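Incident log, structure service

09:12 report received: a user says their structure output differs between two submissions of the same chain.
09:20 pulled the input from the user's history:
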Amino acid sequence: MTSDFSRLLEPRGVAVIGASEDARKIGGQPMRFLTEFGYTGAVYPVNPRYETVRGLRCYASAADLPSPCDVALIAVPAAAVPAAIRDLGRAGVPHAIVLSAGFRELGERGLALQAELDSALADTGIRIIGPNCQGVMNLRARAYLGFGHSFANPNLKAGPVSMVTQSGGFGYSVVSAAQREGIGFSYVFSTGNEANISSLEMMSYLIERPEVEVLVTYMEGLTDGRALLALGERALQLGKPILVWKVGNTAAGRRAVASHTANLTAGAELYRAAFERGGFVQIRDIDDLIDTLHAFLGGRLPKGNGVTILTTSGGAGVLMADRCEEAGLELPLPSQGSIDSIRSVAPDFASLGNPLDVTAHFSPAWKEYNQIIRTLLADPTVDMLMPRSIGGANADAWCAELLEILKDTDKPVIISQNEPPERIQAMIDRLRAARVPLIPTPARCAAAAGALSNFASRLRAHASKAAQQPRCVPLADLDLPAEGGTLGEHRSKAILAAYGIPVTREVLLSAEEIGRLSALPFEPPWAVKVESPDIPHKTEAGCVRLGVPGLLALKAAAREVEDNARRYRPDARIDGILVTEMASGTEVIVGAVVDPVFGPVVMFGLGGVFTELLGDVTHEFAPFDLATAHAMIRRIRSAPLLSGYRGRPPLDVDALARVLSSVSWLIADHGDRIAEIDLNPLFVGERGIVAADALVALVPALASTPENRV
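09:34 re-ran on a clean worker, output below:
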């Protein structure tokens, strides 16, 4: 299996299996594109029905192909694809792009044929894109290796952007839309079913290419979340943003499980968590994508989180200020020196704050306007500048001088366009050629600035990130039963205690033993619960009594909760009655699951009924250190409740961080057997922390392989 795709990207020769003279057919379209659109390599049509296609010798079998032939496009019925792959193997062709459909995407009907294709790939070692894909473009080499309306455009220009898309038709429509806005792509891959080369593998290859400055992906779903995390980390190392358009954000990854944790850990949340920690920039629409590309292709990143708005419209300035704040940007005031300098050329009625509004009456004074821009760019309080463009008769002169000013700064300048494009097309073209972002509306301008600032902030954090701290808890051997399912609270807490997680003091007794009690090793009040692996949610079953004040009440509570358990589920296994000390503090929830895509994941949030009602939770990928645990705590909206709010004393956040990190090591160390961990409630006090309830769910020892767990 090779991960060097240079011959796939830059083929010296291309074969078309199923070639046709008819440009309306899938096998005919790439023949036209490869012979008319500037591709200079060899083209080898393959079809036993023809002697020539478009004046080129046509081969009866792929096995007869000459060298060099680096890529084959396969456009034959699905049933003929495995044989074509074997023929290509005999000819020594290393890569194929399978346009044909009719495999795994058909469900049961296509599985047998998919197995044949997989066998042919294993026997030959050929790497393929597809099947069921629209194809590949290399616009640098004019290699149009696919079919469809977007491929029929010979005027597409190469550029510094590349894309990997899990939707062929929609992905290539993005290429066409970007082309209209002056943005060119080097390479575009439609990955189809990803039977062999995954979108992640291709992205990991493309981001290393020096000519690729920005990577774009249209993503429906992945099978390897950890590889996604590694890709995001590499993007930060290289300083290259990955613009990710994630669709299908449903709870498809959710499993029917017992814990609250699993209910709060669905596919969409984990994808968002992955995107927020790497070099990813999330986008939601084509305009969003194009604006963000313009911002990044400017090649400048802000050194801080501030933005300065310069406008000739008060309304536009207010709108931009609102949107900038929503995007997490700050609007610092210019320095007093800058204000004094600007006051000397601005109208008396100008507003010299941020936004800095010189009003529409100033538009003809384009030289003075540029003088203000020069002053602001020299101001150390300005990280990024967003001026409104000058239009009308002065547009071209203003633009020419502005481009000279920008040669002397490394600060990003994102221009808010204030006139219809047909009136300022020459200026637009000039700014596009110089890679100066010009964005049509104030709100979109602010969104692009936010994306730029957010990525720059992650780069700074990555550069200053300390080395991973050592694990906070040693590896512990656990005596886990071979069978699967949920464990009772008592056994679950024993597992937590083995990893240093504080739990309430407790005793497990039978109802008869409780009836004979004369004392307990800890003082009341007590919590009384049924201990049963078959009743994970004891409160709903009426199997919990809290604040039990003494022995007489304890004996009555024990009988009551046991009777309720037998009525709730007559076949439930009852291991006894659990009597615990009462705990107090601020209630939080901590949990962990082994996700089928992302592996071990830890969830943290505010406890009680608000957890699911408000959804104030955050996720982190296990294992992680104490510093990461502290960052995780700070991310929830209710974090001020933990650090001291309105005069209340701060809680023991250090102890909470240790629990989070310990849970992450527990699920990472034993993820082959532990499917879920739920600490709910977990009480955080001013000093210390304690788990008042816990649930651990296991997978059977014989079923703990990843494929069985999914």
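09:41 both user submissions now match this output. Likely a transient worker issue. Closing.
09:42 reviewer note: The longest helix spans residues 442-464. The chain has 24 helices and 31 strands.
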